[in-house]
Amino acid sequence: MEGRICSVSNAKQLFRSNRFILLLLLITFSTYVGFYVEYHSRSSHKGYNEAFLGREGVRKQDDRVDKTVSEENNHTLPKQVDRVDKAVSEENNHTQRVIPIENSPVVLSGKDLMRGLRRNSTSYGLIMGPFDSTEDRILEKRPTGGCDKNGEFARVVRGRKFVVVMHELTMTGAPISMMELATELLSCEATVSVVVLNTMGGLMPELERRKIKVVEDKEIASFKAAVEADLVIPGSCVCASWIEQYRAHFPGSQSENIAWWIMENRRGYYEMSKHVLNRVKMLIFLLEPQSKEWLAWAAEDNINLDSQEISVAPLSVNDELAFVAGISSSSDSNSSSSGPEVLPDKRMELREAVREEMGLKDSDVVVMCLGSINPGKGQLLFLESAKMVVEEELPREANIREVMSESERVPQEQTLKILIGSLWSRSNYQREYVEAMVRIIYEHPNLSKSVLWTPTTTRVAALYSAADVYITNTQATVGETFGRVTIEAMAFGLPVLGTDAGGTADIVDHNKTGLLHPLGPEGNQALAKNLRFLLENPSVRKEMGVRGREKVEKMYLKRHMLEKLADAMSRCMTTI
Q1: What are the φ and ψ backbone dihedral angles of 451, each rounded to 5 degrees?
Q2: Which residue, 111, 289, 376, 539, has most beta carbons within 10 Å?
Q3: Where does the chain cross the membrane (predicted)?
Q4: Contact 419, 454 (CB under 8 A)
Q5: Under 8 Å between Cβ of 73 and 277
């Protein structure tokens, strides 16, 4: 009996001992997991330059987007973005937060980061706006647009029938420009129908408000409407498939009535469009360099475009924004009695009201970028540059460079504030990329104090009024095709910081209307230096802004665009 009792006692001791060992093993394992998650979270953060920003990564992103535009239309996410936070794969499985041993921020999953952003916490950057009600209260009456009845555009289009083809309805440059073209045609007594290839986006209510007829069927019904029109105007390379089907449905010469307004500059868009380039009557480009590049590509592929009319018509600042900016436009005579000459006080009132809503001080310098948020637009690179400024990582130079004239130092310290839009935009929205942006903000408290977000909207006058500098950091391998937001910002007297490529380099005069920097990570420090320079030199900001505004008044108002389009349409319809 004693032996049995002893045996039982030994067993209990062994069990307690094993349980203690098991507990030690569990503690050791959890500590290892903590180190593992912390390490990989940091390594993933360190490596997002490779995932999103590296030269090769940018090139692959560009090639992937260009190879098939259906990725953008169907919102399929490039494989490239899967590399971000790959080491912390548990984020999709609701892993618990792990507190690192060092005094670094809590490591959060991607889902936690997005939840934090939606909670509107300062740790992730505050969401501000939209400011529609503030605009309406202060500006009251604004021009509704209108036709210059005596202008050449009205003479060309009056009584004619047009079909405008929109590839999508997102609140971005091309769709908004095509909607405004349809509005202008309608106001000049033309008959207009719109074909929408992808209803993604929020412009349908605006089309309805403007009483623009939308063809319900984007196939047979749209083909019939097109063949009966005097002119069909597709507004993107993404319309290539529709053009091909339309020409196949009506193979005769009557379906050649197409003036294709091409708004892209990347080689991949050319590749998916080239088979129908010589099946339209006219090709319209946004800029001369873009036109020359496309024609050179066609020559390389032995595509004969001798029968096609070629024209260039840049985008423009619309009447409403020009009015708020205080610039006289072609339709001012048809608007309310409040002209541009009485708007300076209203603009200042709008600026002060919006900045007050944002919680800004007079010493805060707002650097703003608007557009769809994805690697091609370079917002993550911009945040890297901003981090260098707010955390004072840049070396101090002995002499401040002279850009246009000597600039006095600011007596009051200027604080950098960053306004990023368009949050929740449906145009090529990439959640993983937004998560990477939120992560860098969260992990750098000094940066998080500087960042503001704003949702996607068509009402941007309040945003431009509140800003001090505009940045267009478009990447890929060729930069922005045109950049309508660039000329809008210039209309409001904002100097522009932009990549030295594509349409940005054509529109922004370096050292005169803004400052340019190289593409890719190589441009990070240059952008940071340009940011700091404008931050510290308000007189230079003002002088650049004035020159940019003057350039818009000379080249990028609605009347300039309509003059070009009137000439193009007239030539096109004359030869049909």
Answers
A1: -95, 135
A2: 376
A3: 20-37
A4: yes
A5: no
- The domain ranges of the chain are 7-97, 127-137+329-556, 152-316+560-575
Q: What is the pTM of this model?
A: 0.79
d(CA 246, CA 254): 11
Yes or no: say if 113 and 462 are a contact pair by the CB < 8 Å rule.
Answer: no
| Distance of alpha carbon 164 from alpha carbon 185, whole angstroms | 10
The single-letter code of the amino acid at 427 is S
The CA distance from 314 to 311, in Å, is 10
Q: What would you measure as the largest C-alpha separation in the chain, in angstroms?
A: 118
SS (H, E, C) 419-466: EEEEECCCCCCCHHHHHHHHHHHHCCHHHHCCEEEEECCCCCHHHHHH
Contact 417, 360 (CB under 8 A): yes
Residue 288 amino acid letter: E
Nearest to 356 by CA among 456, 462, 492, 491: 462
Q: Domain spanning 127-137+329-556: which CATH class is it, in words? A: alpha beta
Helices (H), 454-537: 461-466, 484-491, 502-507, 524-536
In percent, how much of the chain has pLDDT > 90?
Answer: 60
Residue with tokens 């130079």: 397
Which secondary structure element, helix H or strand E, spans residue 479, and what is its range? Answer: none
Whether 127-137+329-556 and 152-316+560-575 share one fold: the answer is yes
pLDDT tens-place string over residues 363-379: 999 999 998 898 999 99
**Reading across the β-sheet that carries 514-517, which strands appear in turn?**
126-127, 451-455, 415-423, 364-369, 469-472, 496-499, 514-517
Q: Measure the CA–CA gap between 456 and 464, rounded to whole angstroms.
A: 14
| Segment (H or E) for 416 | strand 415-423
The per-residue pLDDT for range 287-307, each reduced to its tens digit, is 999 999 999 999 999 999 999
Class of domain 152-316+560-575: alpha beta
Tokens of 160: 């004619």
* Strand bridging mode 282-285 / 364-369: unpaired
Cis bond leading into 222, ω under 30°? no
Who contacts 213 (Cβ-Cβ below 8 Å, separation ≥6)?
192, 193, 194
